[in-house]
Amino acid sequence: MRQKVYAGHAVRRLREKLDLKQGELAQRLGVSPSYVNQIESNQRPLTASVLIAISRTFAVDITTFGAEDLDRLVADLREVTADPLFSDLGLGLQDVKAVANLSPAFAHAFLRMHVALRRTAEWRASLDDMLTAGVPPRADEAKLIPYEEVRDFFHYIDNYVDSLDRAAESTAIALGLLDRADPAGAFAGHLAHRHGVTVELGHADPTAPLSQYDPRLRRLTLSGVLSAPTRAFRMAATIAQLEHADLVAETVASARFRSQTAADICRLALFNYFAGAVMLPYRRFLDLARSLRHDLDRLVLETGASLEQVCHRLSTLQRPGAKGVPFYFAKVDRAGNITKRHSATRFQFARHGGACAAWNAHEAFEMPGRTLVQLGEMPDGVRYICLARAVTAPPLRHGGPVRAFALGLGCEVSFAHDMVYADGLDLKTAPVAPLGVSCRICPRRDCDLRAFPPLDRDIRIDENVRDIIPFTIS
């Protein structure tokens, strides 16, 4: 194992689910009751032998006892506790680690409360502005929360949904997609023969919906502005809607979202998840990615999928017993807004605000079409191979904007041998970019790209000294 696994909360939850006392669990595992007590209180890590004993005795997936979820939870708590609201409490790294380890459910509840508090504060500020301007207020203060709630759901399951992924793979096998490079034709034929749905390609009308399914006429209309991979993707999503609505509903119900809006957003995201999974079936794509050492251009050519579809799919290859390289994936616009973010790694994205200015995703806009390779290090000392490429789409009408965004994909340097992009890169001597989650929680004191001070540190101003950053951090 790459690191010690402290998972007392998981062991305690398993024991309580089985209605066992600590002594009874110890007897089943062949260890002492005091050892079980120390494990549950996170005084001792889970050893490989105990993990194996738990797996064999209770038939549970030992990957659920991993530390990656706790790493992400700690990072999220660190960002939230940097809020000035908590500045007088002196909450440090060890405090948030203790909460995340001993009671992750409480930590998630705390994060939800902070998001709600932040949105309420923003709503009050906007309400003051609207009243001053004479604009009638609307009760929409929580409309952004559902999106964050759905993002967190995928964030904490490593962006992998086992039941849906396996269903997609079965569909791909049944349609013969493992041996053919025309998924669109297979999907159109399947929709027609099994569901009586006709697929029509509409005009290249930028004002029309990109896709529209009419359940009464059983007709799926796809806009002529869509690329071939996107047309196939929309057909696959319609197949998910028609054939796997119950499976999607079960997944949504298990997430226990707080609002119907969040459930609706997640339902659409899961239909799209199926579409990506059926276009790039798990084992076939995993084997192909490994054989090509994750060469993105080759993967696009071999599969016929778009670059974004390939990058997104790579970030989902986390099936227990057949995991691929754990990647993070992000989509960033020119303003630095992260419009998509998924991570099966310890790499963290800011929950609020823009991304680190030192990250090569921003530089990619200056060199569209080129894959930039960066060796980056997060404040926790973990290093990553960071890939970034800018992609542009032409305007849909005269005078329309050119749509541009950057795709970011990366993995820890321990997987460098699996990456063609690490060839020729001396991991010991290559320059390392000091990355952070966001300026508001970044502990680095010597970053020339810092936009504003960290919220959990005091700053000093010397009127007689002027440097690139006009303050020093305590």
TrEMBL record:
Residues 11-65 form the HTH cro/C1-type domain. It comes from the Bacteria. Keywords: DNA-binding, Transcription, Transcription regulation. PANTHER family: HTH-TYPE TRANSCRIPTIONAL REGULATOR (PTHR46797), HTH-TYPE TRANSCRIPTIONAL REGULATOR SUTR (PTHR46797:SF23). Belongs to the short-chain fatty acyl-CoA assimilation regulator (ScfR) family. This is Transcriptional regulator/transcriptional regulator with XRE-family HTH domain. It comes from Xanthobacter agilis. The lineage of its organism: Bacteria, Pseudomonadati, Pseudomonadota, Alphaproteobacteria, Hyphomicrobiales.
